[in-house]
Write a structure and sequence with these properties.
Oligomer: single chain
CATH architecture of the largest domain: 3-Layer(aba) Sandwich
Helix content: 40-55%
Number of strands: 10
CATH class of the largest domain: Alpha Beta
Number of helices: 9
CATH topology of the largest domain: Rossmann fold
Largest sheet: 5 strands, parallel
Strand content: 15-25%
Number of domains: 2
Structural class: alpha/beta
Length: 232
Amino acid sequence: MGLYIILMGVQGAGKGVQAGFISETYTIPHVSTGDLFRAMKTREDDLAQRVQAIMAAGKLVDDDTTNEVVADRLAQEDAQNGVILDGYPRNQQQAAFLEKYLAEKGEQVNAVLLLNLDLYTAFKRAFGRVTAPNGDSYNYYYKRDNVDFSVEKDPSGDYPPRMIAKLNGETLKRRGDDADAMAVVKRIDTYLELTQPLLEYYGEKGIVHEVDAAQDIAVVSEAIQQVIDGVR
């Protein structure tokens, strides 16, 4: 039997970090639909061309196509012992497809890990984060270390002030959608809208496990490991 984990959590809950921990600990790949769609840009097969056309038109990838993309990934050799699903399923139709697909392989979703984080903390974790060239992450609110944070006003006054973060004189990167407070709030709203029906769907199956994501990373990882070891 494989290990199939669905990872859910609002932005800033640490899904990326914990997905890395799960992947390394249990030797299963982290499957993100965002990564899968981006990878389609480098492929030339029929499925990739359909996805490319949808994205080029500025449309959302429909459920049937998304299911095909995920099934294509789950059929690959490195995914035969299980996967961590991130960003999928996004609705009950996709969840039903996944359940049927896995059942045909004699498999099932073992656990839905919900990384719980209050929405105010989630906002600050996203809005305040910056990244160094080596991949290290810092945050205006939580992890300042030796980073020099400052606020720069727009000389014309036409735009809101922007946060500048420098480490050893080098300006750190900030995602554009993190710098836009309204975009951060919209992502939170979208998460809430999509998540609740899925929690009800999987809650009825008794496989939702909540983890307090406000704790230290190592503590969250330990809690996740306890859940996974308990359902294997």
